[in-house]
Structures are given as structure tokens and as C-alpha cells.
Amino acid sequence: MQQSGNEMVGFGVDLVAPGNKTPPLHTAAVFELQQSGNGEEGLPPVHTKDGSLDRFGKPAVRGRTGGRKSGLVLLVSQGLVTLAFYVLEASIVLFTKYVMRQTNAEAESTFSLWMGTVYLCSLGGGFLSDYLARYLISIYAQVFLTAGFGLLSASAHALLKPHGCGVIGKLCDPHAPWKVSMFYISIYLIALGNGACESVLATFAADQFDEEDPEEKQSKTSFGWYFVIASNIGRLVSVALLVYTESTGNWLPIFWISTGCVITALVFLLSLTRRYRHFKPSGSPISRIAQVIVASWRNRNLQAPTRGEGLLYRGEWEIDGTRRKTDDLKFLDQAAINIPITQVEEVKCILRLLPVWLCTIWSSVVFLQMPSLFTEQGAAMDGTILHFQVPPAGMIAFDIISTSTLIVFYDKLIVPLHIKLTKTQSKTVAELQRIGTGFVIAVVTMLCAGLVEQQRLKYSDGSTKEMSSLHILWQIPQYILMGASKAMVCVAEKEFFAAQTPDGLKSLEMILSFCCSALGGYMCHTILWAVTKITASNGEPGWVPPNLNDGHADRFFFLLAALTMLNLGLFVMFAYRYISISTQMRDGIEEMEEVAP
User: Fold this and answer.
1) φ, ψ at 468 (rounded to 5°)
2) pLDDT tens-digit profile of 220-247?
3) Distance of alpha carbon 519 from alpha carbon 523, whole angstroms
4) 564 near 436, Cβ under 8 Å?
5) What is the distance between the alpha carbons of residues 510 and 355, in angstroms, rounded to a whole number?
6) pLDDT digits (tens, 9 = 90+) for 556-580
7) Cβ 524 vs Cβ 366: under 8 Å
């Protein structure tokens, strides 16, 4: 049976007849010819090289799917979602205080629990993405967001009674239980939607670029920065909306604007459904870890395999791919009897990460003070500039500017300073060093906030009103320092997890990051609850009472500074003992060279 040229290329057969003197056109040449096309009429389709698929489950064609067009649409969608979410994040403390009539401690606890749930939902979205398509999860998440903001707008309409309430110094009337329930259902619907969207949408956007293609790989790198910029632009616009809201008390317009933003974001997401690239779900990394744990437990009474003996893959005891057999955590070695040594060593890598990871949880506790207690502190200060009233939540703009500036100018500011201080020629600062530096800045931030609070109490008017003549602009240093700490810790933390997570467990990187933030939110709530319980006994108002002028929030800031110093000490100890993956690989290569004949 005759075969066409294209069919024969698949078998690597020369496309010339016997006796023809024309040089043979080999498979590689034909493949290169095909790669020059863009899916246009008259040219063979060019498929992506990274294994991505179109919406029908077929190999994605480069010119017809993905690329910058899809990335730009997802970028706009992310920016709109971020704008809507940060409006609520930055205002929820003041809304619960002046509209829901909560005390300072109650409002901060509500915020901490809610933020912990946001990141917990991010964790859930990451798990689901291992089994379901990221595109579907993104749609479901934005549907929940739309429902949540719609319900929030409706509940706010019912809660804002009488007209004009909900501003500093003017509380709203007590509310019926069903109205309060509507509010809580709406914010937790938003937590569910934003959490899942945050963990999946960025990854789905990155899927639109082919890493195996040099041009698209470069676009993907640039796109990562654009994604961060889009989020920061969304935050800055939300601050502008808050300036209007907190000056006038008009909560309904910004909530309806936020609802419109998430609806528009959903429309953008759906607009290029036919063009998106997809990847098949790869399964959860938790199952790989569980296999090793279960196998080591079942084999606990058996003799651990020695060098080259009793292994599933003989000869891989020293080096298996990029993994070297290590001598710590020996209780897992029994699993190597019936599980590849690479998989065992991957689990060891994750267990070595845990002490450092546990220390990074505390950073979330510190960062959550900015939209909660910092905002409450600012609300009790003089915010008048000429005839304009500076909104307390609007001070977050200094944090955004500080974080963005440090990230953008990192190579020009931080790296040269590091070279000068350490007298090394290294062009990078190790991730653990940056995280430690961020913790040091966090200590200074809490001390600064405590000193400002002492001065605010000194200049309080002594009346029943929660006000002080100290100007709100005295908060600028603590916001700038907080932004610098976030830039150092958050970026380095993600890079550290990405570099130190084994290839077979790469999706665990996102799980560790979101789990850290979720636990930080719940830990913040627990600490505030314990402090309030202890300090508000025997008739005392406590450190964070309903009226900050009656309490000592400065002591709470100093307590956080002390706990941050303690956490820093533990972090330095664990970081000093940590053995990185690159060190394991280098030691393994040296060991092989020593035993080589």
C-alpha cells in the first residue's frame, strides 16, 4: 500500500524514490518546515511543544490558541478581581466596627478569621486543580465571587440604617440576626471565590505560554511581572475608592462597583473560551508523600536496605536522577524496599523544609496587622489635611508603593548593598537571607507602630470619643517598613519553595505558600483572643478595648515585636542547619567522583 510523504515522515523514511539523485529530505527537515507555519491557510499547523491542549483535548496549535492575547484577557480579569477584593479587604474592619457595631478586638478577629479562610480556600483551589481543569475552577470561583459581592451589596443596603451612618463617630442601629447572617454568608462566599481564583487564575494564565518556545518563554517571564503590576494597580484603584467611601460614608456605591468589576472579570474570562490552552490534571502530590509514609510504616519491622541491596531500582541508592541518598530521616529508608528511592528522597526534602516553613507562618501574623489594627489606629488619629480627610484604610497606598518600589529596584539597590556589606561578588542574595532580613524589618515595624501608639495615647483628648490630635501621617514609616518587609519575605519565600521543592512535588510549592497564609490568619485570631482574655480581666479594659484610648495597643505591638524576634531566632537556627537541594546534588557528585575508578 502506498503511503503519503507525511505518513512516511512519521516513520523516519527518506522521501525520495530509488535512483533519484536529489538529496533526501529527512524527517528532521520536514519537521522544521512544519514548525515554520503558524496555523495559517496553506501551511501545516504548528503545535505547541509543552504538551498543552485545546478545548477539544487535541494538541494546541500555536497561532490559534494561547499566547499574549489570552494572557492579556486573563490579566484584565485578574486586575478587576483584585480591585473588587481589596476594596472589601481594606474596608472590612471599619465596616464591621461602624456598621456592624463590633469592638476593635472583635473587628480584628473577624478580619483575621476571614483572611485565614480566604487562604484556606486558596489551598482548596490548589488541591482541586490537581484533579480538575484550571479553567473550570476559575469560572466556578468567579461565579462565587459574583454571588458574594451581589449578596454583600444587598445586605449592606439592609444594614446601613439610619441614612448616613457607618462613618467614624456615627454607628448604625443594631441589626436583626438575618441581616447579620446575610453579611457573613456574603463575605465567606467572596472568600471561597477569591481564594480559589487566586490560586488557579495566575497558573492558568501562565499555561497560555509555551515554555519550550524561546519567544513565548520570554513572554511568560514578562507576563509574571505584569501579573503583579495588575494586582497592585487593582489595589491602588481600590484605595482611591476607599478615599471616597470613608470620607462620605457611602458604602453602597463601592460595593456595587465591586460587583460590576467581578461580573466584568467573568465576562472577560469567558470571552476567549475557544482560544485557551489547557493541561491534563497531573494528580495530587499528597498521594506520592502518602505512599512513602505508608510504605515506611508497613516495612518498619524489616531491615532497611543497604547500599545496592533490596532496592526496587538497584544501583540508584547513591544517585537517582537529581536525588542522592541521604543519611537523615532514616525511618523513611524502609520505604525504599518497594518504592523508588527518588520518591523517598523527595519526601525527605519536604520534611527538611517544614521547620523553615513553620517560621514563615509568623510573617502572615505580622502582615495582617496592617489592614486591621493599623487601620483602627489610624481611625483614632487626626486625618485632616486642609479641607480633606485622609481615610485610615487609604494609608495602605504607602505599603503598595513601598513593596512595588523595592521589587522593581531590587537589583539596583539591595544586591549592590549586599555585595558591599558581605564583600562577596555574588549577584544574588540567598532566599533564606532575604527572609531573615524581612523578619528584622518586621520587628522594627512593630516597634515603630508601638511608639506611634504611645504618642497617639499621649495626645488623646481624654473624652469618650476614640480620637487623638496626633496626625495620621505619623503612620507612614510603619506602612513603608511593612511594605519593605513584605517585599523581602513574600518574594523570597515563593522563590525558596520553588527552588527547594522536588520536581515530582512541584505543585506542593503553592500548597505550602497558601497554607502558611491560612495558618497565619487563624494564629493571629488566637493570639488576639488570648491577649484580650488575659488583659481584660478584673474589670480592666484590656490592651485592645472598644475605645483604643482606654487600652494599650502599644503593648500589643511590642508583644508582636518580641514574638517576631523569637521567631527570627528560631528561623536563623533552622536556616543554618538547612541543607539545600543544590548542596545535596553537589555532595552526591563529589561522592561519586571519589568512588569512581
Assistant:
1) -145, 150
2) 666 666 666 677 777 777 777 766 666 5
3) 6
4) no
5) 17
6) 999 999 999 999 999 999 988 887 7
7) no
